[in-house]
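TOPIC: backbone geometry
CONTENTS: sequence, structure tokens:
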Amino acid sequence: MGQSQSSDDQEVTLQDMQELYRKFAFECPSGNLHLHEFKRIFGVNSSSTEEEAAYMENVFRSFDTNQDNKIDFMEYVAAIHLVLRGKLEDKLRWSFKVYDRDGNGCLDRREVKHVIKIIYRLKKHNNPTPQGNVEEICDRIFELVDVNKD
């Protein structure tokens, strides 16, 4: 409480940065992380579903800020910082970017349904029977959030 500093506010030391670089260089000797390497690191392979592969491609695209189809060390550091230390608002913006599959800056019904299905899959481990219909949930979300009805 009060003036104490949270662990989120601590500076990254030179030693931390060197360790990050060492790990990055080990995984990516070319100096860049390519999509196929990214998928391998996260366990997406030929036996993965099309949806899993597409999701990882969206995550990769969201971290590839200069859109050159590879993640360089600076993009890697920014991604790690966002995930581990980022502010809630930045994480929400990033999540939006991941789920905006066509990159048009808006989530349409198809993309929102996709998000709902992913959430159901995650929840399925705790509760095998879903609470509600995907269509109904999507309609409710658009009812509450889509102010201009576009």
